[in-house]
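DATA SHEET
Item: assembly model
Revision: 1
Owner: S.N.
Input lines:
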Amino acid sequence: ACSGGSSSKDGAKNISILTPFLSSVTTNEMVEALKKQAEDHGWKANVIDTKGDVGQLASRMEDVIASKTDAIVIVSTDPNQLKAQIQSAKDKGIPVLGCDSGYIDGMTMNATSDNTEMSKMVTTHLFDSLGKKGNLVVLTYRAHPGVLKRTLLLDEMLQQNPDVKKVTEMQVEVPGPIESARKEMESLLLANKAEGSITAVWTGWDEPAIGAAQAIEASGRKDIVVIGIDGNSQAVDMIKKGSPLVATVKQNFPGMAEIVAQQLENVFQGKEVEGTELYAPASLITKDNA
Amino acid sequence: METTKITKTSSSVQWSKLFRSYGTVIAGILIIIMFSVLNPGSFATLDNAINISRQISFLVIIGIGATIVMSVSEFDLSIGAMASLGGVIAAKIIASGGPLWIAFVVPVLVALIIGFINGWIVTQFRVLSFITTLAMSTVLGGFTFWLTGGATIFENIPDSFRYIGQKSLGSIPMLSIVMLLVTILFWYVMTQTAFGRRLYAIGGNESASRIAGLRVKWNKNAAFALGAALAALTGVLMASRLGSAHPTAGNGLFLQAYAAAYLGMTSFKEGVPNIWGTFVGAAIIGVLANGLTIMEVPTFMQDVITGVIVIAAVIMQRLGRNAQ
Amino acid sequence: METTKITKTSSSVQWSKLFRSYGTVIAGILIIIMFSVLNPGSFATLDNAINISRQISFLVIIGIGATIVMSVSEFDLSIGAMASLGGVIAAKIIASGGPLWIAFVVPVLVALIIGFINGWIVTQFRVLSFITTLAMSTVLGGFTFWLTGGATIFENIPDSFRYIGQKSLGSIPMLSIVMLLVTILFWYVMTQTAFGRRLYAIGGNESASRIAGLRVKWNKNAAFALGAALAALTGVLMASRLGSAHPTAGNGLFLQAYAAAYLGMTSFKEGVPNIWGTFVGAAIIGVLANGLTIMEVPTFMQDVITGVIVIAAVIMQRLGRNAQ
Amino acid sequence: MSLLEVKQLDKRFGLHHALSQISLSIEAGKVLGLVGENGAGKSTFIKIITGVYAPDGGSIYWNGQLETITSPRDAHRLGIHVLHQDRHLIPAFSGYENLYLGTDIPQVKFGLRIRWHEMKRRAEALKKELGMELDLDKTAEEMSPPERTLLELMRVMMQDCKLLILDEPTASLTDQETEILFRLIQQLTAQGTAILYVSHRMEEIFKLSDHIAVFRNGKNAGTLQREEANLNKVISMMTDTDYQAAATHERQDASMNPVLLSVNQLSTVDGRVKPSSLQVHAGEVVGIFGLAGAGRTELLEAIYGTRSIQEGEVVISGKSHRRMSPQKALEAGMVFIPEDRRSEGLVMGMTIRENMTLPRLQHFSSGLYVKQRKEKHAVRQWMENMNVKAVGSEQTVSELSGGNQQKVVFAKALMHEPILFLCDEATQAVDVMTREEIHRLLREQANQNRGVLYVTSDIHEILDVCDRIYVLREGSIVSEIAGGEATSEQLLQICYNR
Ligand SMILES: Nc1ncnc2c1ncn2[C@@H]1O[C@H](COP(=O)(O)OP(=O)(O)OP(=O)(O)O)[C@@H](O)[C@H]1O
Ligand SMILES: Nc1ncnc2c1ncn2[C@@H]1O[C@H](COP(=O)(O)OP(=O)(O)OP(=O)(O)O)[C@@H](O)[C@H]1O
Ligand SMILES: O[C@@H]1[C@@H](O)[C@@H](O)CO[C@H]1O
Ligand SMILES: [Mg+2]
Ligand SMILES: [Mg+2]
């Protein structure tokens, strides 16, 4: 069956956008882009945020299924945590699309930047600029599925480059990643005072990168570089101004939103989707192109 | 002992008594009526009722855990972390091919022990439970992280494990049935058995209870152990429902569990944590979230409305009281 | 006539008294010594001391807010959300070109009003503060979200706004200075003024205080207002430090603030929330995080160790007491 | 062989010796009276032999066997039960539930369920047997102080008691309930139960005891046979000075003096006080008498502003108030000494100093800070005046003996330099000397043209102290008599409406 049913009175399609991470800068950007796309297509968009709580997200997803929404877009969410709900949406004929999420059986499709790919891009850049050797601090948050993928790629590359030493890995507190990363970095700088004892900071996304760069800047140390992933505007701004933050990967969030919207339009028109896992290409940002 | 002032009966007093005892229940009913009128097609359906009953099951069960600890006038702030850990342990066991019943029993046993340790620290050294369980929560969080490496466990989870979380008996979800059984069981334990009354006695006046000869430490430890066990059970059920276990899955439940329990304290037995009250509290929270989502109220407005309605509900109940 | 004379003797009693009053302080000193021995080059340096003093400044200030509300035997669970809102309001004002002092004063004034409303609901309708402030926290969260659309505010923040958060006076960070001023001010208010004495009396026995002629409602409302104001100030300072305001920046502080306050209740005045105690509590939490990070202990082990040390610290203090 | 024998019992609190070298024995079937000044160590002694406190030295023999009693459970096991000086009830529990706390509650097999009906039936049967009137459906917090005492007494009676300890059981009981208690004591001793009876009411001690033990400053100052005991002798032993009972005071005729307090047709919202009027003239001590539950406490609360007024007015020094509040009352110079000192009189966690100065804090405050030296000075003065036995002004009141706490409450009121005193059972728990001192102080206040409104359950006390007595019955003032002429029979007749 295609679109499940009760569109609103004026005939417009209702789409429900669900995420647990609306307060994350990038997720927010993506949701905004999705809303804009929906408007352009003449759909009504309803955004639901559960503030980091995935259990809640499952409940809210059930609610929109019960209220017979026309489509569901899950943003920045690991679909493995919503298997049952995705199945029941499918049973009711409600398409579930992912935006920066992941694809599992039962979903229509997912558009994302390839987390592994992005991590590879920026990590390779970093390792190259270090001459494949140095001392690396890792600030990450493995509880986030996307960030986890990036960190796993790093783990792999560290194995391949034995001269890049991991000084330590710290998990950043969420919420409050900037402040938390900043504090951790301040302490680590004091613990490693010798020049060269830390040569770079690898972070799982831009917010900890910003915190770490602020700490390095305040300490006056010139020999440490930071990389992030996301390309959020504060980070890009810092790269431009020449802070310790030297590179990030700009995810094409509007692009992802556009892909999702296109595929959804296909679904509404009863056409096939172009693929289940579609990528919006991400690009490396450094001082040269910031 | 605080002396409250009393009055004689009259019809206005009857009303106010009704409000005082059932104020929150009435508020809950009003909320349901409101959503039904505004949204008959989606909200006031059997499907949605079933849906809500399943959604609140976690909150009810963990809330009952919180309530039991509150009945002895203590707090367990580690229930959220305990739920996360419980889910992770269960998922680990089942993913590595362990039998189903082991996946349910081990987390609960672990929780009984951890709860007992919480209780022991609190009663043996007379440390405030607030700081003890907050610290324990940190410990459990670290432990969960160590078990999972921070990642969600979702591979190799067999369908059998998802049975309770995802299947229904006829049209009634298994989760709703478990929730009802837990509620009735603990209502019974807390109100009809000597053990339950002892817990309330200790919560009502610890030194009087000691002087009356109750084994205060033992009973308190038992309350902490039961509370933790219910939290772990919640975590296991969540994992079963989601078919995966996230290392922080239960954390978000912790404040909500106390919200439910405190809302519940305004129902039935005023000022006393009680099982059905917690059930009603959890139901109000669940209905609000469901109804507002169905009405497509934007998230931030949902927050504002939820907060305001909760405050209004408790004030309403108090007005019943003050009218006296 | 005769006040019983006591003889100063028995050195074991002296020791246990020392532990009882300063147990947590001693534990804190032991922790510092431990880190200094393990890591003399990095931990035990002036730089790091300054660093820690800045890092704990937020926790100390918001913790003092929590302490003031606890002194009247109430809870304010909305301080985290209040801090977030405070930071956002300040950032909004400054980003839209408002003058610096307005960006500091408006959030604090808004907080005074919100805190007063919390107090009013609690005292006027005699609703439990736990549920009132939890609901208020939801409302504030929604409101903050509405203000920001969920996004971080970082554009158009002038350097002047970052001054307090990022600069130092000589080598002492402005934040540390603000923290000390706030601590000393509220230590003075709570212990040396009639107002502070009244708050503690109300917290100790509300009906006895009423009979002694204290204006219980008014004083409680004032405590809530002050608590909220300090939370908002914390949020503004955080925004100033980060040069940006995140809609959930302060939320993580809420539980830590209570951890600090409860740890503090085991120092100085036993069982009584007190300002210097909270300071020590926050310092212990801060030193642990700093020291363990410097030692490059993995995060999950940090959690476990922190939890265990906090429990050990409070137990140590109790042992001092029980030795009596 | 004695039922209970203690040897060389010691107890310290910090550096303070509450008990030193106490030796004492109690015989089956006998009543041992225990007397001593406030803070002499009576309650501490009881708490040690019932396992509430651990002793720092000494030994306890039960039927000649050495025993260590480490918890109230141990004491119960031996058959030692106690009615402590302060009530120990669960506020939110009904009378029934409180009654069964810690005793064998009727249950079905395996403790699977409480048999509520059986529980009530047994309780009602006991109540009838004891001849008590008490609504056990009420929760403990809804009961008045005397009702709570009766409830705890019933609880004790449910047990198989070999030694019953009563710590000032009659402190707020009226004659009626006191009679019940005495009857029970007789029944119990006849069955061979030993009784340890602590009281500051000497006539009770002389009436009940077979022997009288006297504590002084934590030491046993000696045990007397009833026959050899008399008031002056006992008190001399308690205080280690020669004691002569004070002469009864001169009574005042103050009817010509200006009216300080006039209560006109006052009634309360909850209906506990029906429209009532009374006057207190300058220089007068006016009593209010009634049976338990007559509404005396409520009337005082309404006057002071802690119970909502329905109609009527309170006129203080000519100024009329239709809505009262403690602030207004204090401003007008009226203080209230509440009946329930733990929950309404004191902030238990604060020091003596902080408690005493609480209503007058602005007086010690410069606006910016509290002048603690001035505070300490004033507090020490009053502690001396009231003979408060404590380590110093900085001691926490929860650490004081019951009587000394009451003295702090009283000193707090006096410190306010009021013109009007509302006293509800003001002399409960204080020792004989202090009681006389309080009476003397109040009379002195009256002589300085101040007024006192005095509520007590002790009929002798009210006849002794008051110039004029109002009798309250079911919330209404039914009679007014001059104190000098009244007799106890007369008062009770009015109360019972005979
Ligand atoms: N918990 C405590 N901490 C410190 N001192 C205490 C404590 N309990 C009692 N004391 C002290 O021990 C002494 C004896 O007190 P106790 O209560 O036994 O006196 P009491 O004879 O019962 O007096 P009262 O007639 O006033 O009831 C007093 O000086 C009191 O201050
Ligand atoms: N808070 C309360 N709730 C319900 N009933 C109460 C409460 N307080 C008192 N009562 C009832 O009111 C009656 C009288 O109370 P109270 O004892 O205060 O009166 P009283 O005249 O001052 O007598 P007394 O001073 O001897 O206690 C009691 O019989 C009791 O049943
Ligand atoms: O995908 C984004 C990541 O890039 C990071 O910003 C964390 O939040 C997620 O939503
Ligand atoms: Mg005593
Ligand atoms: Mg009374």
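QC remark: Confidence is low (pLDDT under 50) at residues 1-9 of chain B.
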